[in-house]
Every structure is written in C-alpha cells, then in structure tokens.
What we know:
The structure holds two protein chains of two kinds.
Chain A: H1 2-17, H2 21-25, H3 32-35, H4 43-50, E1 53-55, H5 65-80, E2 86-91, H6 98-118, E3 126-130, H7 143-149, E4 151-156
Parallel strand pairs in A: 2-3
Antiparallel strand pairs in A: 1-4, 2-4
Chain B: E1 34-40, H1 57-60, E2 63-66, E3 71-72, H2 75-94, E4 98-100, H3 117-122, E5 127-135, E6 140-149, E7 154-164, H4 168-184, E8 193-200, E9 207-214, E10 221-222, E11 230-235, E12 241-246, E13 253-258, E14 264-266, E15 274-279, E16 285-291, E17 297-303, E18 309-311, E19 319-324, E20 330-335, E21 342-347, E22 354-355, E23 362-368, E24 375-381, E25 384-390, E26 398-403, E27 406-411, E28 417-424, E29 435-442, E30 449-451, E31 456-462
Amino acid sequence: xxxxxxxxxxxxxxxxxxxxxxxxxxxxxxxTAGTSTVTPGSQEDLVANxxxxxxYEYNKSSxxxxxxxxxxxxxxxxxxxxxxxxxxxxxCDERGTEEYNIAxxxxxxxxxxxxxxxxxxxxxxxxxxxxxxxRPVALGSNEAAYAQNRNAIxxxx
Amino acid sequence: MTLPLIPSMPLTDLxxxxxxxxxxxxxxxxAALFLPERAFAQAPQPxxxxxxxxxxxxxxxxxxxxxxxxxxxxxxxxxxxxxxxGVINNNLARSGLFRAIDSAAFINGAPGDVPNFANWKGIGxxxxxxxxxxxxxxxKVRVEFRLxxxxxxxxxxGTAYSTTLSNWRRIAHIISDVIYExxxxxxxxxxxxxxxxxxxGPRDRRIKRLAVMxxxxxxxxxxxxxxxxxxxxxxHPTRDQIAFMSYANNRPRIYLFDLGSGRQQPLGDFSGLxxxxxxxxxxxxxxxxxxxxxxxxxxxxxxxxxxxxxxxTDSGSIDVSPCYSxxxxxxxxxxxxxxxxxxxxxxxxxxxxxxxxxxxGRYATPVWSPRGDLIAxxxxxxxxxxxxxMRPDGSGExxxxxxxxxxxxxxxxxxxxxxxxxxxxxxDNRGSGFSARLVSIDITGxxxxxVATPTDASEPAWGPLPG
Lengths: 157, 467
C-alpha cells in the first residue's frame, strides 16, 4: 500500500517537473534512482517513469490537463511496449453514495480509455473496471486524501 | 389513550380455527420448524380510524406493556420462558411504540390462567402478555401466550405454537408481531431478516462480505467468504433468495444467492458492469443498471425466467439505483441526466421520467415504501449527508437524520421503520476511527437506534414478512 501512495506522489512530482509530454516520456528527472532498478515495460516502470494514474475533480469524470499529460506519456509507453495490455480502474472518494460511485468510477475509467484510444492505443489492449469507493489509495477523511482517491489507475495485465 | 375495543372470549371457548404461518428456511436443509397449534379466543381484528397509527405516536404515547417471563416448569422450559419474554420486550421497546415495564416493578410473579389485573393496573400497564412453555419430549416445546387489555381485564388474543427448541427466537418474533398488530392495528416487522454488507480490514484492502441477520441483530451469518467485494444486497419478495453485486473473478456483476443451498449464480451474461439490483414486487424480474461502452449507465429489467433483458432508459447519463413502486407500475431511480444526481420517477416500462427531487444538493438511493406513500432517499448537501422521505410526487420532503455520512435507507415491510448506515470519518491518514454502523429510525424521525452487528456494516436491505 505504501508503495502505491509513493507511486502517486512520484507521478505528481513528475508532473510538476515536466511541462511537456515529450520530456516526460524520456524519463523523469527525479526518478533516476528508480530507473536503475526497474524492468523497462513493467508496472514498476509505468509507476516510476510514466505515471500510472490520473486524477479527477470532485464528482467529475472529465480529464483535467495534468491527466492528459500523464495519459500522453502512457500512450507513448504503450506504443513502445506493444505487448502490454492494461486495465484502467476508476475510483472515487468517500463523499458519494455507493452505487452512483461505481457508475462514476466506470465513467472515469472510460474517459481515460477513450483518451488513450484517441492517442492511438488499440482499444483491444485496454479493459476497464470501477471500484467505486472500495479501493481508496489514501485512507484519511480529508481533502488531500479525497483528491488522491478520485482517479483512474492503469495497471499492466 | 384507549386500547382498541376488542371483545374477548372466555378462556374455555377454544376456537379450533388455525391460521397458517408459512415458513422460510432458517438454516441449510431445515425442515418445517413449527406449526401454530391452534388459535383460541380469536377476536375480530381491530379496524377503522380508531386504530390507525398516528404519525407522532413514537414521541407522545408509547403503550406501557408488561411482558413477564413465560412460565415453564423444568430447566429448558423455564430458561426458554425467560428468553422469549426478553426478546418480546426488546422488540416492543425498540419499536418506540411500546414502553416495556421493568420486571422489577412487577407486583406478583408469573400469573395463573387469569391475571390479577389490579396488580398490573397498579404499575401502569395498559397491556399484559402472559405465556407458558411446556417441554413435549425431545427437542419439542409448546409455547402459549395471551395478550390482555388490563383496564377492562379482557383477553385480546391467545395462541399456542409447537416448535423445536432451536426455533424459539422465531416464536418470540411471531408473538411480538401478533402483539404489535393487535395493539396498533397494522402489521409488525419483527419476524424478518436484514441482509447487509459486513466490512472488515483496512480500508484500502477492505473485505466486504454478504451477511444476513434477524432484524434485531441476532442470528448473524456471513454468506460469502470475503474473497471478493460484495455490494448492494436485496431480498426477493417471496423466495429465500438475495440479489447482490459481486466482484468475483474481477468481473463485477449481479448474482442471485440462494439462502437455502448457499449457492449463487450470475443473473445473466451482460457486456457491461451490472449493479444496483432490485426485485420487482411480483418477484418475476430484477431491475438493475448496466454500464455502457462510453461510460454511462442505463436501467434494464431482467426477466428471471427467460433471463432476457429489456432496456428502460437511454439518457446518455448515469442512471442507477432503480426501485419499483409496490404496485409495480412505476420505478424511481437516480440519474445525473440534468447535471447532477437527482431522483426521477418513470413508468415501469420506461419512458416519461419526471424529476421529483428539488431541494438543494444532490439526491441518491431512492427506495419506495412498501405502503406506497413515501420514497426514502439519501441527500448530499455540502458536507452533510442526510436520510429523508418525500411523497412520490416529490412533495412533503422531511429530513430524518443527518451527519458526516449516512446513506441507503431501507423500509421495514410495514413501512413504519427505516434502517440505513452511518459512517464516522477517519481521524488520521491511516484510517483510524473510521466506522460504518447500521441505524434504525421511525419514519417520524424519532426513536433512532444503532443496530448491533459483529463487524462494520453497510448497505442494509430489509427482507419481507414471511407470507
């Protein structure tokens, strides 16, 4: 679990450091320690050097600009590792009702998938699932935690 | 207040008429567990305006009732007599419509065939329940009870049941329902079960199991082992079956769980994720939501015979949480077609959806009262969640309970009580302090009580009274 939280913060710091998808796709400046130990094309590579998740605003499923940058890098990474299939899991914060949140998480996952497909990733390589609010990555009941939990997380299948 | 006027019959006038009580399986492979032996001194049912429930009774005048331990000669019968009276006292007191008089106030012990009414009048009892338990060899027992109107000193009801020792709780609940109905003029809800989701473990690896219990929290059973997340359980109106959503094999969809056999099967093979099942009142179909390829969700009706699915909405938005009106002609559901989550009512065949929620904030989880007169919901307004009710046309909204997080009301089969769940926030970033607990409340907004469960609990759904 701690690993996942670290992953999320790594992705955030990458976004802060890199303003264009091109520089990000070549590897994050701040993640050199990670690149020396992870297998290229692995989930760890995705987390450390690309960013495995995008974040959404409260009760929204449209992709903010930062998320588009992350997905641009994911599309490039998936182009490079063409045998990787991925699952996009949509998640929500705890401030919504259970069933609506399952549907909202599905919308978030679908929005991320549609973006990847628009960037050239074959839709047959992507599956989606929603966990509603059942798989939070941050466990607090505060805005910082909620912001982390409104996401779509990409994992290699 | 006065008790309903019911002519009593002498104890010697034993009416041989029996009333049938259908049963449901309480355990895997259980056979018929009891039979009502005979009803004696059957009086006419109370009726008319005098016995209609007034909506503020829970606050104003609970009926003082005395339920001393049922008499029993030997060890088992004596223990059972005390336990049965305890369950009845607990049921009636928790309803908020009765005040169970503490046994410490009782002037005499177990009464004979005809109670000394002056003694019960003296401690303020308006109603008295007496009973007797007799062992009948093996694990068979006979339980007899009488309900008395203390002021005129008349018997209102007398019934005897034969059952097995292990089934004593159901007898206590059935007797509680008889008392409730004879005193208040409408059906009780004590001989019912509640299915819910039991939560354990840290929140990021939360284990969510399907669980079922009696309405008073007893006889808790976990029905799934926790390998996969279970959600949104709902009772079939007549069969011993539960519809719920499971993440089994990472393919979230609706399953039917058979309580008798413990087996489950997918409702159907659908391309999208299926969620929020609810049985039709006739029990022949399930209404549910299915996600679409583009990320929206539509409402479908699935026939339980053919398993054919009929699409009821196509709004290009999220349509979830459908629930039929008790007459089966309408469906209330949750949709964000207008921008954010609101409640809509449409015909059972789809089409003609009208928005009914117009207060500030968002609305969710609509459920139609079994009486048909109200729709209960969750409302999200700023940082506050609340449980409320409104009439099916959206008028007369009343908020019953609100806090940091409450969700998911479910009606008792008589439409008089709601159960929902309440969460407390985590106080740190490890999730410490988070809890989820079931709560019951009278539809007047009074008599809010926590329902004891062995673990955290959410998504309760009240089962039907046995037909």
